[in-house]
Amino acid sequence: MKTILCAAAIAASLSAGPAAAADFDFNGSFVNDNDVLRFNFTVGAPGVVTLFTSSWLGGGFDPILSLWDSAGNQLAEQDDGFPGDSQVSNGTLFNYGEFDSYLALNLAAGDYLATLTQYDNFSVSTALADGFLRDADPNFTAAFGCSNGRFCAGSLFDSNNDPVEANRTAAWEFHVVNVDTAQAATVPEPPTLMLLALSGLFLLGGRYAKPKRGPGYLCGQPDAGAEKISAALHPNRVPARIA
């Protein structure tokens, strides 16, 4: 059964700011391939909020970012922040790679939730309550292939069509820019019956990750019934690749 990360298992660093908009930086390591990290944040005034990871270049796993409103409705889901760039958070310039995740969206004032998962653990639907594709499989990347047997990238190619090292680490770095508050959230473990149901859906669907090759690759949706919509833009005005 999936192990949900708790406060003792997350080595997270939080840079607090004043009551006005600030930046928040978190980092740590997954325990299992299918871990799901949740971050609550509050937007005090309408504006552009940036969410991004910066751990891929340091050897971390291939992350997926999803954004949800306070009712658990999905607003965006993003896999690769191609072509990679840099972003300032708390006065520090963080570089992110093409397989990191990047979202920059105009958000209304209110409460939001971001989730961080490993590819290809996409959300099952646009409702957070429905969970994620790999909730019942704590070691799912072993099927992608690597000598470590976990946190595997498989036969992955970058935008230059060069092969990527298949063995990745459990490390993650996540940043929330221009919000009033942000914190890591602890969530209850999904019910056993829901895990079994998700496992059955996965087995029936026979879903396996496909290698990503170059800038034209778009990650497949785990559920073709729900269209993912986002106004996210790359800093260089290139549309973010939404899964």
Automatic annotation (TrEMBL):
Signal sequence, renumbered to the chain: 1-21
Record has Signal as a keyword: yes
Keyword terms: Signal
Ice-binding protein C-terminal domain sequence ranges: 186-207
Keyword Chloroplast annotated: no
Entries under Pfam families matching the protein: PEP-CTERM
Cited Gene3D superfamilies: 2.60.120.380
Highest taxon listed in the record's lineage: Bacteria
Alphabetized NCBIfam families for the sequence: FDP_fam (NF038127)
Name this polypeptide is given: DVUA0089 family protein
